[in-house]
């Protein structure tokens, strides 16, 4: 009996120590100083399971580097021995890393090259592979590589080709080592009347199909189109319009990702909303049907630069972050903000870099990836003397907490942090609903198992509060998730006995 009592006491002490460490990290709203990674330009990066950076960039040649999360260089070598190359992109899955880039030839044509990188090696172990078609006198650009699983990748690019004299979007399947490459196929479907490009691929939640999105001028002005495919490249339907059919201004660039919570596709693009550019987002459901609303991600108050680069990422809890280039004081800088899935911001935007506009530098090509409740950023910084690549890691909560939350909107859904937290044995959870809807509030353990349903009913617009009594549960981390209409939000709480 005494032994069991002592064991229980010891467990509580260990939980308390772990909790204190956890809370100290949260309360600090940690953010690292920016880290200089390398001389170079036009970065692309991924984060592996250990939180390490894998980076490709231009430095006369295409180079690959691996860094720890503190910026310590682990590996560094050339991917391409040829200087006449353009921006490189890479993707990663389970220790498999593939880089793709455009090679400029001397005969008025270009090719898309790719290379499989063994992350356990310290040098290139194979030669670059031509992943585009061999059709001559063609201009190819904007390559991307997409992992469908551990053994199948889809490489896409834009440009002329043997299947169309118009600029089109092309795809080609391969194995993960780029040794077995299938035939080239065309992704867009209006080859007679349009030029298409700036394509992106988003894999569905069940990995059974994918959404391809691109910029298309079939109406005489650029618009965003999408098309659903099975994972073998078979079209499920004709293309459909994603951007506003009434939009008459210039559209530019694309970014997209999947919301793991509901399986919807997020499509982000830039619009020339004279006199400023703005970022807009639209959700597309799993069947390829766009939602009715197009959401404004930035506003006229944000000085988004002309023809901007930007990126969106969403983690497994449905938390969304966007990063973009902004213009101020004659220079460009990188800004980021957290958003709800309805497009409303939480907190104020932050300037990712610690440099000031007075430092006489410009920053481009922002990238962001979620990892373990942290946001990994990479960007390219340049002036008349140098081109450098920087990185920074910022706690996700910093984008809200340091900006003196709540700061939520009266006309939006809002899920508050439970109080008290930590708690024993009960805590209160409150939220706001701007309209009536069917609402569910559930509690999950750290493994994702549902342990309690607190609300499951229709509720009118208003503010609500419920109590969660955890007397029968063990100490540890729990999550509570609110579903209200299209709104989904998840927060963390800690039970300490």
Brief summary:
With about 500 residues, this protein is mostly beta strands.
Identify the strand order in the major beta sheet. 1-28-27-26
Count of strand segments: 35
Please state the average pLDDT score: 83
Query: How is the biggest beta sheet arranged?
Result: 4 strands, antiparallel
The end-to-end distance, rounded to whole angstroms, is 20 Å
What is the radius of gyration computed over CA atoms, rounded to a whole number of angstroms?
Answer: 24 Å
Helix content: under 10%
- Shape descriptor reads globular
Structural class: mainly beta
CATH architectural name of the largest domain: 6 Propeller
Strand proportion, as a percent range, falls in over 45%
What name does the CATH topology of the largest domain carry? Neuraminidase
CATH class of the largest domain: Mainly Beta
> Could you name the ranges where pLDDT drops below 50 across 5 or more consecutive residues?
13-29, 401-411
Task: Count the domains.
Answer: 2
Question: What is the count of helical runs?
Answer: 2
């Amino acid at each position: 009996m005494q032994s069991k009592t002592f064991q229980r006491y010891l467990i509580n002490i260990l939980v308390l120590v772990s909790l204190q460490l956890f809370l100290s990290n949260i309360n600090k709203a940690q953010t690292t100083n920016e880290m200089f990674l390398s001389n170079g330009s036009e970065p692309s990066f991924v984060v592996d399971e250990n939180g390490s950076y894998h980076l490709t960039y231009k430095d006369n040649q295409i180079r690959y580097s691996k860094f720890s999360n503190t910026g310590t260089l682990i590996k560094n070598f050339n991917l391409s021995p040829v200087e006449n190359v353009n921006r490189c992109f890479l993707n990663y899955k389970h220790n498999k890393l593939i880089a793709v880039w455009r090679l400029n030839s001397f005969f008025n044509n270009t090719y898309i090259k790719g290379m499989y990188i063994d992350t356990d090696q310290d040098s290139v172990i194979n030669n670059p592979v031509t992943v585009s078609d061999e059709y001559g006198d063609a201009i190819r650009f904007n390559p991307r590589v997409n992992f469908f699983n551990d053994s199948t990748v889809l490489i896409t690019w834009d440009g002329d080709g043997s299947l169309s004299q118009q600029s089109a979007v092309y795809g080609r399947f391969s194995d993960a080592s780029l040794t077995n490459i299938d035939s080239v196929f065309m992704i867009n479907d209006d080859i007679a009347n349009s030029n298409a490009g700036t394509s992106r691929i988003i894999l569905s939640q069940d990995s059974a199909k994918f959404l391809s999105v691109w910029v298309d001028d079939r109406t005489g002005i650029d618009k965003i189109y999408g098309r659903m495919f099975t994972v073998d490249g078979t079209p499920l339907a004709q293309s459909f319009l994603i951007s506003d059919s009434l939009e008459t201004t210039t559209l530019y660039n694309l970014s997209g990702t999947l919301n793991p919570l509901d399986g919807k596709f997020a499509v982000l693009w830039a619009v020339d909303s004279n006199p400023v550019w703005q970022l807009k987002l639209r959700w597309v459901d799993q069947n390829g049907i766009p939602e009715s609303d197009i959401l404004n991600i930035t506003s006229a108050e944000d000085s988004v630069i002309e023809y901007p680069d930007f990126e969106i990422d969403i983690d497994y809890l449905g938390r969304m972050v966007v990063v973009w280039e902004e213009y101020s004081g004659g220079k460009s800088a990188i800004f980021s903000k957290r958003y709800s899935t309805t497009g409303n911001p939480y907190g104020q935007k932050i300037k990712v870099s610690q440099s000031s506009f007075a430092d006489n530098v410009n920053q481009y090509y922002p990238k962001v990836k979620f990892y373990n409740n942290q946001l990994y950023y990479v960007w390219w910084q340049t002036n008349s003397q140098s081109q450098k690549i920087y990185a920074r890691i910022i706690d996700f909560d910093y984008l809200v907490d340091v900006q003196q939350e709540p700061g939520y909107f009266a006309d939006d859904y809002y899920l508050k942090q439970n109080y008290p937290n930590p708690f024993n044995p009960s805590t209160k959870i409150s939220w706001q609903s701007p309209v009536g809807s069917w609402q569910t509030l559930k509690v999950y353990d750290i493994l994702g198992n549902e342990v309690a349903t607190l609300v499951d009913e229709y509720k009118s617009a208003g503010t609500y509060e419920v109590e969660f009594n955890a007397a029968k549960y063990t100490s540890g981390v729990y999550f509570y998730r609110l579903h209200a209409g299209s709104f989904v939000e998840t927060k963390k709480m800690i039970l300490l006995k």
